[in-house]
Amino acid sequence: MANIQSMTDQESEKNNRASYTTNATGVLSYMETELSHDDNQEEIERNLVDGNDAAKQTTDTDKPFYRRKRFWVICGGINVIILIILIPLIILVIFPSVAQKAINNSNLSFSYMALQMPIKNDSFSMSAVGEVTNGGSISGSVTFPEPVDIIWKDTKIGKVQLPDSQFSGGSAKINSTGIFNITNADAFGQFTIAQLSNDNFTWTLDGKVDVKALGITKRGLDFKKNIVIQGGAGFKNSSLIYYQFITYNNTPLGGQSVTASIWNPSPISIFLGTLGLDVYYKTTFLGLIESQNLTINPGQNTIDFVGGLAVNFTLRDSPNVAELFSRILSQEPVLTTSKGAFAKPDGVNEVTWLSTGIRSMEMDNLLPNVTLPPLLSLLNLTLLG
């Protein structure tokens, strides 16, 4: 019995060991399976990641270059560099050069100018209407920070402040009134002679100008322009349309009443105030005639003068006076000469440079039909007798 029990215990232990072995083997097998599964999962995940990267790489490679992010980053950087270089280049080099060229190529002309009161020895008021053309296609504005020099025959004769102007399409209008300051009185007197006597004259305007366009302002550009202006040409196409001897201020021989038609070919209007003219027949002085509050405008001017007859004829004048009255009585042509004597803008005081110009004026005119008053007829008979 004991042996049988012992054998039974041994068999049971053997079975237990087999069971343990089997269970251990199963656990090991299960662990190996799990580990293998984990390894496979990691491999799969790695493959997926690698596959995605490869797919991404393949996708980026297949995109057109202009759709790639790197392309636009590079372009942006290049644009920034270009702007950093180009903006200062435009502001500091290109725009000033273009603006200066436009100024140099532009044309300046005046269609009307007026010398107005107050007129003094060192200044006068001047109005001007003009135009700038051929100034390029850019729109903007010009400003003159200080008066420009007026130069005549290489001599500075004055300064004037030009107005600010807006330009568009290469042109600008000028309409201004300012003070012309005379810097050389003697030279300006000579200029006035030329302005009244010559067919034309040339002014050079020299100064600085500020230009603003396209949001850019460039200061201190050179402004130098030659402008040719038509002169008075000596008022050659002038005539007397009325001449009559009159009673004048109780003078012994009376006076002269004259209406003259004066043609001014220049675009310049000049306020003269009181203008005095000395009237001559040949070398004999006939008397002074005056017109008051006078302005000589461009074009035709009808001007009334009045003045006394000279009473201090000398023996040397007698032949000329006798000839004058004889030609008047016989209604023959009588040629007289009018010479500028003075200009008094305020009616009292002469302005030196203006009178200098006026004294250069000399006009020959035929007298219209004239009737001698009784006293002059008697004088004529006395001279002839």
TrEMBL record:
Its transmembrane ranges are: 71-95
UniProt GO cellular component terms: fungal-type vacuole membrane
Superkingdom, taxonomy of origin: Eukaryota
Task: Please verify whether the record's keywords include Membrane.
Answer: yes
**Pfam families, per database record:** DUF3712
Alphabetized UniProt keyword annotations: Membrane, Transmembrane, Transmembrane helix
Question: What is the name attached to this protein's record?
Answer: 9211_t:CDS:1
Lineage runs: Eukaryota, Fungi, Fungi incertae sedis, Mucoromycota, Glomeromycotina
